[in-house]
From TrEMBL:
Pfam families: Flavoprotein (PF02441). This is Flavin prenyltransferase UbiX. It catalyses: dimethylallyl phosphate + FMNH2 = prenylated FMNH2 + phosphate. It comes from Nocardia uniformis. Flavin prenyltransferase that catalyzes the synthesis of the prenylated FMN cofactor (prenyl-FMN) for 4-hydroxy-3-polyprenylbenzoic acid decarboxylase UbiD. The prenyltransferase is metal-independent and links a dimethylallyl moiety from dimethylallyl monophosphate (DMAP) to the flavin N5 and C6 atoms of FMN. The keyword Flavoprotein applies. Transmembrane segments: none annotated. FMN binds at G21, A22, S23, S48, S99, M100, K101, T102, R134. Residues 14-184 form the Flavoprotein domain. Signal peptide: none annotated. Belongs to the UbiX/PAD1 family.
Amino acid sequence: MPIEYLSGATEKPRLIIGITGASAPHLAIHLLTALRQLNTVATHLVISKAAHRTIELETGLRPDDFAGLADVYHQRGDIAATIASGSFLTLGMVVVPCSMKTLAGIAHGYSDDLLTRAADVCLKERRRLVLVTRETPLSLVHLKNMTAVTEAGAIVLPPVPAFYHGPTTIEDLLAHLSGKILDQFGIQHDLFPRWLGATAAQDFVGGSVR
């Protein structure tokens, strides 16, 4: 549903996407690409300092390549950006992938850049905040921070692969995760087949699809 903004104009709902320095920026690429194809929300992107290096190392791309997938790109140091204010209406924010450092900052209200500030705004305004936390194994510190953000209202959504839909490619796994993220914001999509019960499912024998 479009959001009626303070100006009275009807615009596409806005979704903030944050990318941090955790491994697997590919998750963000897929999500941004899927949202661009759906064209039902306006995406506002912010990339952490560490993510710039991870993007280069793991994808061979530049941060500017990611920025080109979003409707609006915000510099991480621009604390006066629209997404730093609760008066700027959004559906919420997803941090994908979310590093343990960023998780810790959000859990303890330490907003040292625009990304963590935007996440803090979502918590204080009671908007949806989804953290795609990527680390393994998890220490007790990590688990306590996940508990803290959950108690504050965030949703911790680790990028755990599912196999009930019979994936055969990495693309299938990425599409499922992107779809699970979009589900959290009520954004309609057809990125993966829904579970319709055992009678409608494919038979699995020895770990392979029959």
